[in-house]
From TrEMBL:
It comes from Rhizobium vallis. It comes from the Bacteria. The keyword Oxidoreductase applies. This is Aldehyde dehydrogenase family protein. Belongs to the aldehyde dehydrogenase family. Keywords: Oxidoreductase.
Amino acid sequence: MKRYTLFIGGRPVETAHHADILNPSTGDVVGGMPLATVQDLDAAVAAATAAFEGWRAKSSAERADACRAIAAKIEENSEELARLLTLEQGKPLNGLGSRFEIGGAVAWTRHTAEIELPVEVLQDTPEGRVELHRKPVGVVGSITPWNYPVMIACWHVIPAIRTGNTVVIKPSPMTPLSTIRLVELMNEVLPPGVINIVTGENDIGAAISTHAGIAKLTFTGSTATGKKVMASAIDTLKRLTLELGGNDAGIVLPDADPKEIAEGLFWGAFINNGQTCACLKRLYVHDSIYDAVCEHLAAYAAGIVVGDGLSEQSILGPVQNRMQFDIVSSYVEDARAKGGRILTGGTAYAGAGYFYPVTLVADVDHGCKLVDHEQFGPALPIIRYTDLADVIAKANDNPAGLGGSVWGRDIAKAKQVASQLECGSVWINKHGAIQPNAPFGGVKQSGIGVEFGAEGLKEFTTIQTVFC
């Protein structure tokens, strides 16, 4: 078993203690996560601070070239990263799994390299010229989750360094190894200290939130943890980007074709085994086509192979950890007890690993946990409706507001319904299809700020207005 190291100031740093990282498919130990101390965090912040002046002085073109070089490094080592990702996270190598995630990391990195934030001229008159300049914030702290440990790391790190900041990243203690390897590869093309990694349990994340040397924090995770991050950042008035939990609603209109939309509905809900912030988590279907949608969804789900991610035959893998496995199981049981009809799945697989079958639960409504709360796993509630105004109100009756979708043949009607959904992103006849050129973020309790595109890049800058 390999014992991994931290990476601080451009070099590996050993720690006195490690924690075992387990394969969720088998329970086997994948590797040893280094347990950083607060002193290690201080060293990482110091390294990032020392590197900042030199990095911010680089031209935009030089920083763009560095991001392109990172993309090439990831691509060159893509199969190694994908295998390590599968071992610790569980998602299959093939399909929409680990290779797909690594490919996404490359695509986002390359796109971000090409974005410019030029000086904006606000006024140029005989009375004077006013310019808006964007400057890097300083040292950025990054805390990433366990569902997409490589791609989300790139979502945090690449915009930060593209705009002249330096970074200290702390990945989830569930899936730190692929992020450590990613940072090692980044350090092959970046000056020492531009990107540093510390790993450990939640106490290190809390220390990042309060650290006086960190000017901005970007966090992806649950709403509950996001609130703690926000509270702990108060004393230093850190700038924050928070991408938090979602309970995305999809509304199927009566003119939709149940057979035609079944595949899109399925992958909208079950990409990454449902362990995605902006995947479909509540499905509202009009009474006139309710039974047909249930039938076609169940038929599609029947062909999905769930198994060890290292098998090329697996389409979905396990739930990543025991806590999430127990949440999914308990929510399904709560729905069953409240009259939910199990169309497929509903009973955990026996044996090793956190395997839970694709589960569709019909005839449920608000008032059960599977509808009211984010399940973050392979279980989807299907809710019958008759009145459009009522279902829009129900879709909005939730503290989360990350994504939503509307499904139907009449695109103008679907867009009109979509405009009434209280969420940061909305899709028509698809769900969760994010892009590197389109801003992504939540409203209500699903977050603060946005990621991706020029708007996402701006999150890592401060404004200086120059009056000439």
